[in-house]
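Hi support team,

I'm filing this because I wasn't sure whether my run with iron/sulfur cluster finished correctly. The job status page said complete, but I'd like someone to confirm that the output block is well-formed before I use it downstream. Pasting the exact inputs I used:
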Amino acid sequence: MNALTLYDKVWRQHVVKDYYDGTSLLYIDRHLVQEVSSPQAFAGLVSEGRNLVRPAAHIAVADHAVPTRLRHMPLPDGLAARQVSRLQANCERFGVHYIGMNDNRHGIVHVIGPELGFTLPGLTLVCGDSHTSTHGAFGAIAFGIGASECECVFATQTLRQQKQKTMRVTLTGALQPGVAVKDIILALIARIGTNGGVGHAIEYAGPTIATLSMEARMTLCNMSIEAGSRVGMIAPDDVTIAYVRGRKLAPTAEQRDAAEAYWLSLATDADATFDREVELDVSALVPHVSWGTNPGETAPVSSIIPDPALETDLARRAKMERSLRYMALKPGMRLDEIAIDKVFIGSCTNGRIEDLRLAAQVVVGRQVASTVSGIVVPGSASVRLQAEAEGLDRVFTDAGFEWRDAGCSMCVAMNDDRLEPGDRCASTSNRNFEGRQGQGGRTHLMSPAMAAAAAIAGHLVDVRSLEALSNG
Amino acid sequence: MDKFVTLTSVAAPLPEADVDTDIIFPARFLLLLDKVGLGKHLFHERRHAPGGAATDFVLNTAPFDEAKILVADANFGSGSSREQAVWALSDFGIRCVIAPSFGEIFYSNCFKNGVLPIVLTGEAHRNAMSAAASGQLFVVDLERQTVTFPNGPATRFEIDPYRRRALMLGLDEIGGILAEDADDIAAFEIRHRASQPWLFLDDGRLDRLFDETEDQ
Ligand code: SF4
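And here is everything the job wrote out:
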């Protein structure tokens, strides 16, 4: 018998036909639609006179361009207003369900898909957004696509795709207190590189996975694309099933037993082989922060900035030099001495309830440094309501953070929340690219607890050493 | 989609690894709703000084301001899935990008827009980069799968047969699926619905969810 991986099993269930040229027509179960990648896709349908074949396979929400305060006011930015109302109009025209900005189900696509149970194990799910890999945490094949492919899904419910190679990342050991799953993924990317996963569907496996919550698993899969992989997956288990049960769009009572039995059968067979294997013992892992302008330019917070002169590959060296120039940093500087002025806690990587709890634990009873301004942006309205029910909003505002409405916010400089040129930000988002958080802004990626600690200390700092700091 | 058969042009050298799609097309211009006219925002921060004046970035400098080919470095087009990066390149006039490796979503977006991404590694890539820098005229031949410039032998590149054919014929992929595969898709849906009925929200669950008003 042919032993199969999780990816193989889900793939095989969705092949409509094999074209025998290395590509297959893959059925797409679900599509999350947002305002940035959809206008041109809808326009394509209109100009070609095509139908949207299965409206019930899509839900739409505006998350990138929306403001995170004064939600009930008209959008101040004319372009953003036009983009959001275009999405709404397109949804009305084609019969797609649209979640409004002031709806309790609103939020970042990758946060609300799982919350609603729109994301399920074993399905194929796409979105015109590269962090669609997030949904692989449920054991789905979920990947980001461009606008032309969004149009193809609207019109055909399929995509012509090449099967990926497979790569297993086996995690062993238990995380130390103060170390988070964000540190695992940052350390992994630093090790395999930002193109280390290109062409591969990653499966995260190993004993550590069983100990991780769905929120943590989503953080892990979310950043697969930063290692170059469109797909990052985790086999469904009891934790997955417990999360999905009772979600609004989860299988009905009559369907449930069959669905859950099927999901559990998707786990990679014991003797299946992968094209590539990577192992990471997380028990010795320490908190990481990025120092450069891609997520692979990351190091333990207790280390120093590396020297480009030691890099032998010339293009890599040029890239490092450029990163350091952009970040205004010098080789040999200690990372934990870098002063910051902004803190952003949120995004589809770390804007879930558990992330906010971890940050709040660090913040409670302390004050944000006088040189720092920080915002906390829940990933969805439901995360916000939950956090408020737990009193986390007060923990943050008492410490001097601003507490906002849900959205992508300062993860991407497409709305009112952005860095000014020269600002240096401790951020829980996923990309530290040049200008990503605002033209000329400088981003250091880290976990929610680490970002909270940086806000208190006024500089990058190992959250585990915060106890020792005076908090005057 | 425009057909791609051969292309003759100088090639602009960009010897820098990890040029992501945020650099190629900064996020704030994603608020625009069009596909055309995006070339003016291509590499915006690289091409414009803070005051707005043109920089000496390669695409601002003759003869490369008219280049139809870009020779880039490892991991070109990584990061965000924004197809605007490809629309901007093509609006600027770039029809071919040569690099040792590409971001995957960018790579696949290229083919939807008549842009040919070519993978050249090692020696072949180094030769192309220096030929580009010295302003040599490149000839890209998709039929023969070769890149040629005066100072070197023709270099062969690999490309999936399907993608090659689609580019050469300017195929409309969606039209093709609708015309040729609709019956297969319909038959698949029936089987799929029978085996995993919970995947189909056409049963009204989605409508019911949205019937509840949940305004804050
Ligand atoms: S939070 Fe950031 S990474 Fe996530 S979907 Fe929004 S813009 Fe993209």
